[in-house]
Batch of 4 targets.
Target 1
Amino acid sequence: MEPRLNFFKANPEAMKALSGVEQHIARAGLEKPLMELVRLRASQINGCAYCLDTHSADARKAGEDERRLATVALWRDTPFFSERERAALEWTEALTRIADRPVSDELWARVAPHFSAEDIVDLTVLVNAINGWNRLAIAFGKRPA
């Protein structure tokens, strides 16, 4: 697919608004490695090559382990992720696939003990943001350089 549209040039105000959400996320209490894992998992589910390339590079720069990057798609089957990370990844998957099924009380019971109320909101905003970026990149044909 050829690039269809440079969405940053086409609507700088909209991109400024989304960038404001990213600035909030950057100031949030969530740890950087966790945020990159969330971005990677949502981007895998959505099939966003651009975001996978970007966030795997960002994770490497931040010191993320190659084994964890290689297995984040199958996080349930590896011992490489903490309980907090597992909760975040499960939350990410549920929200990214929310049209398939509602977020269950059982999932909530697994996620809530690992995060403060503020952190759960920030985690949810992060998942919403990466899903939005994925949709922009996919819809407009943005590819890795």
Target 2
Amino acid sequence: MRWSELSIHTTNEAVEPISHILHEAGASGVVIEDPFELIKERQDQFGEIYQLDPNDYPEEGVIVKAYLPVNSFLGETVDAIKESINNLIIHNIDIGLNKVTISEVNEEEWATAWKKYYNPVKISEKFTIVPTWEEYTPVNSDELMIELDPGMAFGTGTHPTTVMCIQALERTVKKGDRVIDVGTGSGVLSIAAAMLGAEEVRAYDLDEIAVTTAKLNLKLNKVHHIATVAQNNLLDGVEESSADVVVANILAEVILRFTDDVARVVKEKGYFIASGIIQQKKELVKDALIQTGFEIEETILMEDWVALIAKRK
């Protein structure tokens, strides 16, 4: 099969919504080239492992690359993607240069192009994310290692929004808890919750590819007896007061659409961890959660992203 590489020169602020647009359009894998990765200071306490080549990054802005199969519908698909990205301006999202280029790649290039950006990363006091094709020896005896193959789903576990979610799970999940992971992607948050002692984890995603990928990763990390994955739209049909912790690493606009459902599903004194929020949307999400019966217990910041730990009154 032939593949087309769609390259979008944009801003860091627009990376998450553009990735979502590409996902919805059927993109098979995404690569993010952010020059900030070359200069940002790393926290040595977590021992991140990086092998970055400056030639792989733009001089300014961020490049998002997606891979689409070459077929008779490719032109229409690309046009729809461009239109959706342009519409982000309506939501006050800076799309930067918004330069879109297309080139053809062969099967082998497509399958391996994004892997060079993905190395073992220790993201918290407890967790290290390790791609399945890398060898890694734990540094500490109590280190928890998550093996991950993102496949065609989104979420390598190393994006700031995911890192903040995992750190928040460390602070909220207790042994025996019931956890719900909304928009699970690769399943990394469900794996972390299970490893932290949750008795039951239910993961949901609307995309069937994400559901398949998450199931494989749960089995790979030997937590499939604790965590299950199903195709579902957010919290539709989930029973009332059934979760000690609900975690959602999705766009702020989506979080705002189902705060009432979160309040219905989370037990009294239970937690909602919300991530994927850009700074400009922070207060909107906070206000919505407060109005639905939550109190904001902690705000976590990383780069331009925000995660909230909210407790149900």
Target 3
Amino acid sequence: MPETFDQYIFSPVGWLKISTTQKALVSISFVEEEGKSSTSQPAVMEEVILQLNEYFDGTRLVFDIPLDPEGTDFQKKVWQLVSIVPFGETVSYLDIAILSGSEKNTRAVGLANGKNPIPVIIPCHRIIGSNGKLTGYAGGLDKKRWLLQHELRYGGKNSLLF
């Protein structure tokens, strides 16, 4: 397993712990407080922080960062499908299940989405219930709501009322 580097940043949704290797982002975690950051940081970490700050400032709509999330083949397939949902738009778990190969995969899609190790950048907050309701989010529904409202504020097309 490659060496990982950690950096903590404070964002509008609270503290984030960012972990990278020398070459790629491996995780973003919502944490309660700042922890100890690695003393040296690879260039990819600087790029992740820059792009996250641009996203939170409303000037970045698409991320361009090498990703290396750890997961099963199915989880990675779901995360890839989630990654194509445009800024400010939402789709349902059922939509992703159909794209993954079977509308019967809705529960599995929900579980995979819940295991997403790179929230915000792999935009699992854009996946909602078929009835238009906000459902589970690892960081909490308050963070999911904030992210969706943020995207609406900066040009999103989502018409959900939340």
Target 4
Amino acid sequence: MVVRKVGKYEVGRTIGEGTFAKVKFAQNTETGESVAMKVLDRNTIIKHKMIEQIKREISIMKLVRHPYVVRLHEVLASRTKIYIILEYITGGELFDKIIHQGRLSEAESQRYFQQLIDGVDYCHSKGVYHRDLKPENLLLDSLGNLKISDFGLSALPEQGVSLLRTTCGTPNYVAPEVLSHKGYDGAVADVWSCGVILYVLMAGYLPFDELDLTTLYSKIEKAEFSCPSWFPVAAKSLIHRILDPNPETRITIEQIRNDEWFNKDYVPVRLLEYEDVNLDDLNAVFDDDEEQGANEPCGNEDAGPLILNAFDLIILSQGLNLASLFDRGQDSVKHQTRFVTQKPAKVVLTSMEVVAQSMGFKTHIRNFKMRVEGLSANKDSHFSVILEIFEVAPTFLMVDIQKAAGDASEYLKFYKNFCGNLEDIIWKLPNESCKSRISKTKSKKR
């Protein structure tokens, strides 16, 4: 058997797959240490204008060296690939633990929350605001300790800028001020997300969970929720102080640290010794001469979906007949399907995420591309779908849906249910409703 090596790392099986990267198990041949190797294709990230976003994510992970944050070891590159070497975490996602176990005990919830606050507090001390804190982005190591991951939406505000303005994150965990589009303090918004996570740990379900986005946002803005009867009084009090819709009066991390319930059996984390943050490997990977000119600004605050040109449309239509782009009949629902919308891209993305989560799936979002994954209907196999938003005209967007894992019949069921819950954003051909009425009339005459 041929053993593949990248530098000093021996590369093994694939342990994960995202929209733009594969994650491989690897071993450091010098130390014997197991690592996770995130493999990205250079051309893909250049094409999708993701260089700045990935550079920012790597810089942030190098900056936040903490026991409760996934550690980034180094960055390597070949002519065609970029390799990000990460700490290998074996315990899975906290999300999966909640799904399988239901609500956690008070002691276990408390311990995870303490570790979360320690890690988030350290990030804030370095000027890093996560902006997408949720159980899916919290991993567990072999000892059951929390590890904050996925800094893809994180922000490092520019000098002199105190408020962030990008609306991002998962709707159910997002602070009300983030939804208001008036600017927000990243640290205060992260605290809200921590409060939602604590509630989920102890309840086994979300405090704000509505299929209709307008209703969901309204409840978040008013902090309209109630704690279950089994919550201890002290925990209820803390959660209500965290889920304060007014960011000015919301409890701070320093105040959380002084809270009596938080301090019960609290063991302060022992910080790592100071390490000089070196970005030489990062600069070497991305600043090659061959990349100059292709390195356009990306991951910026106003980045939009990819714009399709005529050639892209022809390729997507599988021929010169562009009618298949807008065909949503059953015959076209095989492994790839599309629909068209006139709604803003962010509204479409958020709507799709809420619907997918309401169907019991996990979602992962990157640059107007979303991966939906979970178990099949009979719970015996993995099911995964990739959705990407494209701009086909200034007022028209196309959502391309592709099956990544699972069988075709499972995909057909998913597609029908998913689109059935998105009727308010899906654009129909002007004569489509008319055709439907005519066919019904004909069937009655028969």
